[in-house]
Amino acid sequence: MDWTALRLSLELAAWTIAVLLPLAIWFGRVLAWRQFRGKALTEALLALPLVLPPTVLGYYLLVALGGASPLGALYQSITGRPLVFSFEGLLIASVIFNIPFAVQPIQRGFEAIPGEVRDAAACCGLSRWRRFWRIELPLAWPGILSALVLTFAHTLGEFGVVLMVGGSIPGETKTIAIAIYEQVQAFDTVAAGFMSAVLLLISLFAIGATYFSSARLRRPHV
Amino acid sequence: MPAGRLALLAVLWFAAPSFQVQASDAPIVAAAANMKAPLEEIAQRFRADTGCAVRLVFGSSGNLYRQIEQGAPFQVFLSADEESVFRLAASGRTEDRGVPYAMGRIVLYAPHGSPLEPDEAMDGLRRALEDGRIRRFAIANPEIAPYGRAAEEALRRRELWEHIRPTLVFGENVSQAAQFASGGSAEGGIFAYSQALAPQVSARGRYVVLPRALHEPIRQRMVLVKGAGETARRFYRYVQEPTARDVLQRYGYDLPEQ
Amino acid sequence: MSDAGLYVRLRQAAPIPLDAELACAPGEMLALVGPSGSGKSTILRAIAGLLRVREGRIACNGTVWFDASAGIDWSPQRRRVGFVFQHYALFPHLTALANVMEALLDLPAEARARRARDLLARVHLAGLEGRLPRELSGGQQQRVAVARALARRPNVLLLDEPFSAVDRATRERLYKELAELRTELSMPVVLVTHDLDEALMLADRMCVLAQGRTLQVGPPFDVLSRPASVQVARLLGVKNVFRAGILGHEPEREITWIEWRGHRLEARLQSAFPAGSQVTWAIPQGQIVLHRRDRPSRGERENPISGVVAQFVRLGENAAVTVQVGEATRPPLFLTIPLHVARRNNIDVGARVTVSLLREGIHLMPPDDGYMPAREAAARDAVAGGVR
Fold first, then answer.
1. Is the model more confident about C182 or about C21?
2. Is A121 close to C82, i.e. CB distance below 8 A?
3. Which of B:147-186 have CB within 8 Å of A?
4. Helix axis angle, B36-50 to B230-239, nearest 10°
5. pLDDT band at B72; cut points 50, 70, 90
6. HEC profile for A108-155?
């Protein structure tokens, strides 16, 4: 049982959520309520990681983060290490390939709020921030929860992109999905089976907990 | 509910920094996939003898070479060939041109229940091919794995290559080839001797070590990557010392002269 | 024009064409009436600040809320308007009490709860404070919306077809409650509705809109009986609209003579129209008196017209009757008579009937393509005929 790899996976998922969720809330909200030129194109771009084969995504990420790229060079000059094969590089990749999993449910969540309700909030004297915090967020919560669960589960399971961008460096980029793969290759079926079961339980727990909590909240519609 | 989730995040947040500190301690040693079993033992002994730890990463030599070119943070590289090391040296990534540390041997393997009877001349394989009883045959990908190249060479020298080509299944590295072959999804395969010695593999089938004459010697070379630290250098030397060499020999490798 | 109350002037060509001007005094209820797409809701939203119009000016109690040329545009929060939306727009995740309290965030906590309870009690919802919107009926939700709109003591109360989503019985109850509530309200109230009867019942003044233009403003009954143009008459569902020619005026007797389908009719004096000109005239159904065999009345002397019943449709306890006057191809007269009267007078398809068109009810308007503000015409008549 590779606890380091498990902890790494959980940290990657947690950090991805921490970085991506606020961004996804912002983007999802804008896409839900604003019309602007190029909106369709923006939505298509944000959905790209959904349909792109992981290896294609991995390739482009390597190009964008590798030593020859501006971002990679910048990182290297600051830390002395390459961006690829580092946890930070993996985090960037993880945020990118999770974008549609986070943005789309949140966008739907905001879209479900009737425009009248937002108008009513304004007429009640709620400032824009208060309206967001007290009215919009609670009503969009099912979407946000969905995004959270999907991102978490997807990050735990992501394999191709992680392998390409992160390599398999123990303690740095060797996630539990990769560890399972390597254990299978090394004929250590006991370890692979155990880790897979742990992963399965964690995913089940995460999804179960969120479905349970959203059932309790029981979102009504006016 | 939102509060609970925030708390969880906060906990993980604090865990992360301590995490990074741990990660940067032990140097990373990258080795060809066929070295998994022997190198793990060597690393254990190294730790016992010196108290220092190393982290091991395995893959095909071609992949590891590419990753080092891209700046992967490996400090020692044990390749399954020499070319990869020379190319890295030429692009200035290494301290020097490295040293040979082992000579590899390949085996012809057939899992239990396969119609294939392994023998040194590979006649059994020829017969099985002619009878059409070979549907899948596993070797490592010759483009990135030296053991795959050796397998291809051996098959060519026995004039079996063209015949067997349609049935070939390529493992991404030699470990995967061994796994395909012994897992029962292929009728046989060619991979590293050291892997055949592993109990999980040897228990599942029969094999025979193929004669050196059938392929170019698999000269495995290792090298220190530029900027390697003290522990990495100690390990590099350790692999060339008697304790490590014994282990290598036990795992079926020939040793280069010193 | 005094500063108190609401003043609105809006104009734009796109995306929704508007050319409206209206005013509402404190304590007065102004109904905006018109077909769908006439811009009523747009105007309401513009008053609230939820929508920005290209040109115009909106001021309330002397404070300018919006002035396109001066670049002033206050947010809805700043304007302090109470808005009751068509589907109430209650916050679904908050109880009735919490919904009202959301409008009271400037008050400290206990004052907030107390005031919210008072408001809910005022709209007859005491005891239901803890319910979520989905646990309330349509009528109850509407009351919460009204309470919430009034919570901030708004400068203006705006209601956007607030009765359209409830059934008839509830609606009638809500009308009564709103009428009661109004007596306590000292602010201008603007109600948008497509239901003329609602406007007649609730509003002090009515503004008729079509394609974003204000066509006529005035007390509802006045507008209905004195539409300024054929278009307004049609919008208000006045069925009896016909063409006629002016024969002449008798200001001393306060009569205008018109000629219609061979008949010489006397109408109330409306001297804005010169003799010999063509006009359109309208008469509400209530001003047409049937000559009854069983109960002759004095009204029968005015403008007797006889014709043949062309259609007879039972509508509940009444009958909608059309009477052919003159050639069969010309539009008929419409009137409604109680069923028992129809039976007693043997009114049915094909029967010959005589009706009287009461002089006071005959209202003259410019021919189809003309438009004259009712106020001007009335002023002229007042001058011509002496003080009435």
1. C21
2. no
3. 175-176, 179, 182
4. 120
5. confident
6. HHHHCCCHHHHHHHHHCCCCHHHHHHHHHHHHHHHHHHHHHHHHHHHH
Residues of chain A positioned with their CB less than 8 A from the CB of C48: 119, 123
Beta pairing class for C352-357 and C304-315: antiparallel
Per-residue pLDDT averaged across C147-176, rounded? 89
Q: If you write DSSP's letter for every residue of C19-52 in order, what string do you get?
A: EEEEEE-TT-EEEEE--TTSSHHHHHHHHHTSS-
Q: At what angle do helices A137-157 and A189-217 cross, to 10 degrees?
A: 170
* Tokens standing for residue A127: 């400032």
Query: A58: part of which helix (H) or strand (E)?
Result: helix A54-65
CB pairs under 8 A between A and C: 79
CA A123 to chain C, closest CA, distance in angstroms equals: 6
Q: Is B70 an interface residue toward A (CB < 8 Å)? A: yes
H helix runs in B24-122, sequence order? 36-50, 61-69, 83-90
Q: How many CB atoms lie within 10 A of CB B14?
A: 9
- pTM comes to 0.78
Instruction: Inform me whether the pLDDT recorded for C144 exceeds 50.
Output: yes
Q: Do chains C and A touch (3 or more CB pairs under 8 A)?
A: yes
Q: Please, which pLDDT band fits residue A21 given cuts at 50, 70 and 90? A: very high
CB pair distance less than 8 Å for A116 and C87: yes
Closest CA to C196 of C142, C158, C239: C239
Residue of A nearest to B56 (CA): A170
Contacts of A15 (CB under 8 A, 6+ apart): A91, A94, B12, B16
Q: What is the pLDDT of residues A40-73, one digit of tens each?
A: 999 999 999 989 888 898 888 888 888 778 888 8
Using the beta-carbon criterion (under 8 Å), do B72 and A167 form an inter-chain contact?
Answer: yes
Which residues of chain A does B177 touch, with a Cβ-Cβ cutoff of 8 Å? none
| Gap from B70 CA to chain A (nearest CA, Å) | 6
% of chain B surpassing 70 pLDDT: 90
CB atoms within 10 A of CB C297: 11
Percent of chain C exceeding pLDDT 90 equals 43
Per-residue pLDDT at B4 exceeds 60: no
Contact A165, A89 (CB under 8 A): yes
Residues of C with CB under 8 A from a CB of A: 45, 48-50, 75-77, 80-83, 85-93, 102-103, 105-106, 132-134, 141, 148-149, 151-152
Task: Give the tokens for residue A153.
Answer: 């589960």
Phi-psi region of C276 (alpha: psi -120 to 50; beta: other; left: phi over 0): left
Among C42, C74, C78, C91, the residue to mutate for chain A (most A Cβ within 10 A): C91
Residues B98 and B88: their CA atoms lie apart, in Å, by: 10
Distance from CA of B10 to the nearest CA of A (A): 9
Q: Which two tokens stand for residue A189?
A: 């079926």
Q: Quick one: pLDDT at residue B99?
A: 93
Give the residue ranges of DSSP H helices in C94-249: 96-101, 109-122, 138-151, 168-184, 196-202, 220-225, 230-235
